[in-house]
């Protein structure tokens, strides 16, 4: 009887182990899928290819922004107060950062960007600073805001040796040289052209036009390289009608000049051509592969693949 009991117990353990590892494999399936090598229809809308979740021991929790530097993908894992790094197959490579106010620590890591030397810049909205790390996650220094202008840095992007930063509480966009010298300052609180309410993200196109998601005003504002207002994109014809955006967040421009905007409360991404005409709508509320749930950050890589932080689904979804 004892032998039979031992046998039954051992059989149960083996069965549970098989089920456990099967569940693990299922949960990690999407994060081990590799992006497709070539776009099937280059003229068509981007389609879902895969997602990044983090490793089983510590999945992403409220990922807010994402960037790709060389062959690695860096994600601000905000609730975990850290940065998670993946290769292109979705394998977790390493993590850095922890909760705190000291060097290399975060309270609310948000915007993330990389420079041409592979250094990583992370905006910490609650600590009110921008930390700079090497490509392996070693803290190097704080960004030197020479005029002490930044209060609550949010979105970050680097183009042509300049750092573009939205300050959410100050309702402004700042552009700095990488040595900390201010180049231009745009905005201030308001609903007029050139004013913002809680600007969340920024990007720059190949014509050096600056795009800022003016989240509280449900629009994207476009400026020339000197900060002069050009136009509004809000989903209406010519940007002059009532906005169709609901809390726009991430923004990015692909190699063809198409502009993609994360429509946060509508749980989708809207794509426009360079003239502001709507072309694509990606996502929709849900948990399926091609759906989103309160998406936030957006980055377009050199292949024109869209990486979007899907905050409630706790993943980064990739469309190509």
Description of the molecule:
This protein is mainly beta and 320 residues long. It is built from 1 helix and 28 strands. The chain has one helix at 2-32, and strands at residues 48-52, 54-55, 58-59, 63-69, 72-77, 82-86, 92-96, 98-99, 105-106, 109-114, 120-124, 129-133, 139-142, 153-159, 162-167, 172-177, 182-187, 199-204, 210-214, 219-223, 229-233, 248-253, 259-263, 268-272, 278-283, 295-300, 306-310, 315-319. The protein has a 4-stranded antiparallel beta sheet with strand order 1-28-27-26. β23 and β24 (268-272) form a beta hairpin. The termini are far apart. Mean pLDDT is 89; it is low at 1-36.
Indicate the topology:
Blueprint lengths: L1 H31 L15 E5 L1 E2 L2 E2 L3 E7 L2 E6 L4 E5 L5 E5 L1 E2 L5 E2 L2 E6 L5 E5 L4 E5 L5 E4 L10 E7 L2 E6 L4 E6 L4 E6 L11 E6 L5 E5 L4 E5 L5 E5 L14 E6 L5 E5 L4 E5 L5 E6 L11 E6 L5 E5 L4 E5 L1
Parallel strand pairs: 8-9
Antiparallel strand pairs: 1-28, 2-3, 4-5, 5-6, 6-7, 10-11, 11-12, 12-13, 14-15, 15-16, 16-17, 18-19, 19-20, 20-21, 22-23, 23-24, 24-25, 26-27, 27-28
């Amino acid at each position: 009887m004892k032998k039979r009991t031992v046998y039954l117990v051992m059989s149960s353990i083996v069965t549970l182990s098989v089920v456990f590892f099967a569940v693990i494999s299922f949960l990690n399936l999407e994060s081990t899928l590799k992006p497709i090598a070539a776009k099937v229809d280059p003229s068509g809308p981007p389609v879902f290819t895969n997602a990044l979740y983090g490793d089983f021991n510590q999945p992403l929790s409220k990922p807010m922004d994402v960037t790709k530097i060389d062959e690695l993908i860096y994600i601000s894992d905000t609730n975990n107060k850290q940065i998670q790094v993946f290769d292109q197959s979705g394998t977790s490579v390493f993590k850095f950062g922890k909760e705190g106010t000291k060097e290399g620590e975060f309270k609310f890591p948000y915007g993330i960007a990389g420079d041409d030397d592979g250094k990583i810049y992370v905006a910490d909205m609650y600590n009110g600073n921008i930390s700079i790390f090497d490509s392996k996650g070693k803290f190097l220094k704080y960004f030197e805001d020479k005029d002490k202008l930044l209060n609550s840095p949010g979105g970050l992007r680097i183009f042509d040796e300049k750092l573009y930063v939205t300050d959410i509480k100050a309702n402004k966009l700042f552009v700095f040289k990488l040595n900390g010298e201010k180049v231009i300052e745009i905005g201030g609180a308001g609903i007029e052209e050139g004013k913002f309410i809680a600007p969340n993200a920024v990007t720059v196109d190949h014509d050096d036009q600056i795009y800022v998601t003016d989240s509280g005003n449900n629009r994207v504002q476009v400026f020339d390289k000197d900060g002069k207002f050009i136009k509004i994109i809000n989903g209406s014809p010519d940007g002059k009608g009532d906005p169709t955006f609901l809390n726009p967040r991430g923004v990015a421009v692909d190699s063809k000049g198409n502009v993609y905007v994360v429509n946060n409360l509508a749980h989708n991404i809207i794509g426009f051509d360079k003239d502001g005409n709507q072309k694509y709508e990606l996502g929709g509320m849900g948990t399926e592969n091609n759906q989103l749930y309160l998406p936030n950050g957006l980055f377009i890589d050199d292949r024109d693949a869209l990486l979007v932080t899907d905050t409630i689904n706790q993943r980064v979804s990739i469309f190509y």
